[in-house]
Design goal:
By secondary structure, this protein is of the alpha+beta class. The chain has one domain. Helix content is 38%, strand content 12%. The chain has a six-stranded antiparallel β-sheet, sandwiched between helices.
Length: 253
């Protein structure tokens, strides 16, 4: 007679192992998600800035004007503004209408429809809203003055409805004070994932969010690497309007 010994884990050992796996997952999954979102936000911001820059250059080559050459603001009537064409009107709306495909002009940014889930989860509002230091300053000058396009990929591009003649002399160094004093109506934003949350402006995880300090660093964290990026329109260029947004663009692959 031979006795066969069978080896197996006890129930206690299995439960302890599962508990350890659960703790490790709880610690790593949020960081993993933040890293994935951070890389996605970076690449989408870079893509959108490139798209807008190409639009300005295309408008200049085909119609003879860029963001600096705009001489009139977008028509306050949404239907009229969405049909403005660069052959007859030199405005931000006509420039984008004549160079971008698959976009939708909503007029006031609060007209952009939200997903039902966002309305239920948030404070009950049924309007698209964004928050952050630069955009809060912008909206402090009159939130109702900001209009927006939604691009074919869902990205939202917002700007002041009075934006026109956004020109920066060659050799001018952008500073926070210069932008606010001379180009306040040329500042806007890009929301890289549309109306989906968090709808929050990117901020520095360390350093100061000021061009002059050149110390801002934005890590891939859910707190700082978010979906809204301040931009400034001028000449044939769209570029970051905050140190945090600039850092993200510089580090995007």
């Amino acid at each position: 007679m031979f006795r066969h010994n069978k080896k197996a884990f006890t129930l206690a050992e299995v439960l302890i192992t599962l508990g350890i796996i659960g703790v490790v997952a709880a610690m790593t999954i949020p960081n993993l998600i933040a890293n994935v979102n951070g890389h996605r936000f970076r690449s989408q911001f870079k893509k959108t800035v490139s798209t807008l820059n190409q639009a300005a250059r295309l408008s200049d080559s085909q119609y003879g004007f860029d963001f600096a050459g705009t001489s009139t603001a977008c028509n306050k009537n949404v239907t009229t503004a969405s049909k403005e064409h660069p052959e007859s009107v030199m405005s931000f709306c006509s420039l984008l209408n004549g160079t971008l495909t698959g976009k939708t002009y909503y007029g006031k940014h609060t007209n952009i429809p939200l997903k039902e889930s966002i309305i239920n989860i948030e404070s009950g509002t049924n309007t698209y809203q964004i928050v952050g230091p630069v955009v809060d300053w912008l909206f402090g000058t009159g939130a109702s003055k900001f209009v927006a396009y939604q691009l074919a990929d869902g990205t939202i591009v917002g700007f002041n409805e009075e934006a026109k003649a956004c020109d920066i002399p060659i050799g001018t160094k952008l500073t926070d004070d210069y932008i606010k004093k001379n180009l306040s109506k040329c500042i806007g934003w890009v929301d890289v994932n549309g109306t989906s949350l968090p709808n929050k402006e990117v901020t520095c995880s360390s350093g100061q969010n000021k061009f002059e300090s050149d110390s801002c660093v934005v890590k891939n964290s859910a707190t700082h690497m978010t979906d809204v990026y301040p931009i400034i329109f001028h000449n044939q260029t769209v570029e970051p309007a905050s140190a945090a947004a600039r850092y993200v663009l510089k580090t995007a692959k």
